[in-house]
Amino acid sequence: MEGNLLIIEDDPEISEMIANYLEKEGYQSTVVHDGEEALRQFESKRFDLVLLDLMLPKLNGLEVLRRIRAQSQVPILILSAKDGEADKALGLRIGADDYIAKPFSPIELAARVEASIRRATQYSNTDHENEPESQVLSVGELIIDPDNFKVLKRNKEIKLTAKEFQILKLFVQHPTRVYTKAMLYRLVWNEEYYHDDNVINVHMRRLREKIEDDPSNPRYICTLWGIGYRLGEQ
């Protein structure tokens, strides 16, 4: 698979290992070692995916993530130490698509990179249950435009990440269906669910914060405790 990657990692040995392995897999890589240079490179070139370490000099990884996400929906994969659970959760809330814990297997990293780019590049054709993409959908005060990947609430656009959009579209397309976390993981992440509740919980919380007037009392996506989620507005 081809793609242009931005690798943001302050450890030269790790960044060189990542770049060399992924280049053998067909990717082109730009490697930077601090947050300020990362933003300069991102603003000067087009990238298909960002690999982001959180512990960076000059500008920390979470701030880099926040600034990139403010201007782009490019897939972002966090590289995180195993003891950085709080930072990983915060990164997902800010807008990261996935994370991989250090130390990691290059084979696993390449697989995650490929999956993330594939989901992004095929996003306009993503339809897991063969529903037409061209129909504009609406629920309550939300209008969902699948062709243009836009969500409006009271005629004001809401910026969603690719996964947030897929989750919302899935519920609105199938308003009577209940989705377990395992079902959501298979349909949105295209991977088997290994009881990693953190990824689902963070994406669901972030989506609710964007579309709900009161995220603690959701109107659009409701929780069925012990079962899963369903569309609240019918």
Entry keywords:
single chain; 234 residues; alpha/beta; Rossmann fold; Arc Repressor Mutant, subunit A; 2 domains; five-stranded parallel beta sheet; 8 helices; 22% strand
Main CATH class of the largest domain: Alpha Beta
Number of strands: 12
How many helices in DSSP terms? 8
Low-pLDDT runs of 5+ residues are 124-133
Summing up helix and strand content along with how strands pair, one would put the structural category as: alpha/beta
Give Rg in angstroms: 18 Å
Strand residues, percent:
15-25%
Outline: globular
What do we call the CATH homologous superfamily of the largest domain?
Response regulator
The biggest beta sheet is recorded as: 5 strands, parallel
Distance between the termini: 41 Å
Run of helices and strands: EHEHEHEHEHEEEEHEHHEE
Characterization of the model:
The protein is of the alpha/beta class. The chain has 2 domains: 119 residues, Rossmann fold; 107 residues, Winged helix-like DNA-binding domain superfamily/Winged helix DNA-binding domain (Arc Repressor Mutant, subunit A, Orthogonal Bundle), CATH 1.10.10. 41% of the residues lie in helices and 22% in strands. The chain is built from 8 helices and 12 strands. The chain has a 5-stranded parallel β-sheet with strand order 2-1-3-4-5, with helices on both faces. Strands 6-7-8-9 form a 4-stranded antiparallel β-sheet, covered by helices on one side. A 3-stranded antiparallel β-sheet has the order 10-12-11. Strand 8 and strand 9 form a beta hairpin.
